[in-house]
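BACKBONE GEOMETRY TOKENS
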Amino acid sequence: MTTPPRTSTRPQRGQGQWALGYREPLNPNERMKKDSDGLEVRQRIIDIYAKAGFDSIDPGDLRGRMRWMGLYTQRAQGIPGGKTAVLEPEELEDSYFMMRARIDGGQLTSDALRVIGGISTDFGRDVADVTDRQNVQYHWIRIEDVPEIWRRLESVGLSTMEACGDVPRVMLGCPLAGILEDEVLDATGVIADTVAKYVGSPEFSNLPRKWKTSMSGCVDHCTEPEIDDVSFLGVVNEDGEAGYDLWVGGGLSTNPMFAQRIGVFVRPDQVTDVWAACTSVFRDYGYRRQRNRARIKFLMADWGPEKFRQVLQDEYLHEALPDGPPPPPAKHDQRDHVGVSKQKDGANAVGFALRTGRISGSLLTTIADLADEYGQGRIRTTTQQKLVILDVPDEKVEALVEALAVHDLQVRPSAFRRGTMACTGLEFCKLAIVETKQHAQDLYAELEKRLPDFDVPIGINVNGCPNSCARFQTADIGFKGSMVKDANGEMVEGFQVHLGGHLGVEATFGRKFRGHKVTKAETADYCERVLRGFQERRTDGESFAHYVSRADEDWLL
């Protein structure tokens, strides 16, 4: 039988790309967005849901559009990780929300931090997380309290607008932008301009999926541009002009890919327009048929940087961008700005480690007070779940270090405390399989006891599921949550191990060894065993990631 030729003029379904003519939704998420723009949910929250309560919330808003306002339902307490993939969303969720306050560029005043802390204390059971995207995330939020929370945040220039959803998420910037002498240029202005013009705009409120941006002139590449959807990295061209190198297509989750250089030089006054053009390419050409292929990294993998540049210039910018140089390698391997750094004005930036990002609202308020007492009320969040207080005079540095230490906020932490991150985990996240926050804290405390003289930077990232919110693929030791069998054959919380991931020169994702897994109870023993082997066999100055790249497999199991 011969199939008759296609004669219909209707566009083929393909990947559901708008630019190719197919605008009909191809999955429930796309239908949800077409039925009502996610931005419209704000007014329904104010007018209806906050007054009538959780049970009044439309399911399409509850599990979809409310993300556009930074709201996710949190996991119901007591549901084990083995049930995560079995239960329906309505069976996993509680009547409380996780809420993200977006902090573009990580920039805060002490007044803003007091408001953030007060919201946690008053409405979130005094729990807060400083995330690895420079946000603050709350838990235990009731829908009835959301309008008042918004009012307080907006009083200090903050919001939850598009902190989640298929939209431009928080825009990362160096927490020491404009502060350090050796930065290539200060990206504070271009971030602010881009946020002001496009965040909350219907122009980009329906993207195929999330859209993560970084803009930075930091010589340490602290915004981790290798794994963002779109990044602007500070460079100096051959004429001595400071501008940006454009990278597109980074992302982790279950299909990790590094961003690719587009090869153009972007002047500071062009950044907002080029960002909008890149975002438009994603909006119009991004794959919308399958959610698991709807990130820009899949389009970049198919197109390559040359085609992306051509489409960007010809169809959206309508002008050619000049070729540009690549950025030099990151100046320092550690990108967290922890410790005491000299500012170009002679004062000091004092960066300190929390407990894997977990903190209380009360302590955030205390930090705001310390920033006023020892500095000038300026605080920054980092992409490593850390905080920085700026403008500390030389004579006050050690007093601030001691004042922070009283609250277990460490300016000179151990390698393990400094290098350990964790995602939200089973405690609150509906996607998680294992608990992470407390386990990661217990892990670094145990390693400090067992290996007190460990003297090189080490990243240990603890993730509750495969989605890589804590970036397990780029850590020296990455733990991906899963259910594993213990010695008795029982299924218990555990982790798949990834080793030797790193960013920067010759960036690579962590190696998996025969699907090697450890139970939660075995993680400290495993880390100790592998790290002692590294101490015994390393060469002078060798990093752990390099050691892993040459190690025999038996050394790492």
The first strand starts at residue 71 and ends at 75. The CA atoms of residues 71 and 234 lie 33 Å apart. The two ends are 57 Å apart (CA to CA).
